[in-house]
Design a protein that fits this description.
The chain is mostly helical and 217 residues long. It contains 10 helices and no strands.
Length: 217
């Protein structure tokens, strides 16, 4: 084993998946510590996927019928409660706070500005090496993989696969963390070696543009 190889994993260096996931109710949910909630979500996701993907139900008509049924039930409940002098159905205040909307808009604005700045750097600055290196290459590769996978599955199937993976990958990694980390280290070394070859043979030969400071008319 070379000097640059990382030391072998030890039990004391194991990552706490529960803490990595936040250490709260979400972590308990994803690690099946709250197996009842995880089972409900998995069964519900499987049922929705079967209804809309295999049985051929339409999502819009299904949602409209469910909402209509709920409205009728609540209306009859409220009328019967007023006649029988019973309490009205407990309905929470269904509204979105202005603070949550502002936070979501700020996060979306930051990401959009970042994407636009990178696109401008590539298009206006003609910085091809920036596109071929670093995060931009990862984003392009990720988009290509998403497009390639999307040609085989529908959006609903991809969402269902995401739910199943989110409820299975953390548990499996928590159980077989040492073996998975060992395989990931080997894969990481291979990827770095291949990237270094590409960088030495292709990327370093791309001329970098000289910034003259002139404005583009």
């Amino acid at each position: 084993m070379g000097e640059s190889d990382p030391p072998p994993p030890s039990p004391s260096r194991r990552i706490s998946i529960h803490q990595a996931l936040g250490g709260g109710s979400v972590a308990d949910f994803l690690l099946w510590k709250r197996w009842c909630g995880a089972t409900v979500v998995l069964v519900s996701a499987s049922g929705f996927w079967f209804l809309f993907e295999r049985a051929g139900y339409n999502l819009l008509s299904f949602v409209a019928n469910v909402i209509l049924l709920l409205v009728v039930i609540l209306f009859l409940w409220a009328k019967s409660a007023s006649i029988l002098n019973r309490p009205l159905p407990p309905l929470p205040d269904m509204e979105i706070s202005e603070e949550s909307v502002v936070k979501a808009a700020d996060v979306i604005r930051v990401w959009i500005n970042y994407v636009l700045s990178v696109a401008r750097e590539i298009a206006v600055g003609r910085n091809v090496k920036l596109f071929l290196q670093g995060l931009d290459l990862q984003v392009a590769f990720g988009l290509w993989v998403a497009s390639y996978i999307g040609s085989f599955f529908s959006f609903l199937t991809l969402v269902y696969m995401g739910v199943v993976l989110s409820l299975s990958v953390p548990v499996l990694y928590d159980k077989y963390q040492d073996h998975i980390d060992d395989k990931l280290r080997i894969t990481h070394r291979v990827v770095l070696t291949q990237y270094k070859k590409i960088d030495d043979t292709i990327l370093r030969k791309i001329p970098m543009p000289i910034n003259t400071g002139k404005k583009i008319q």
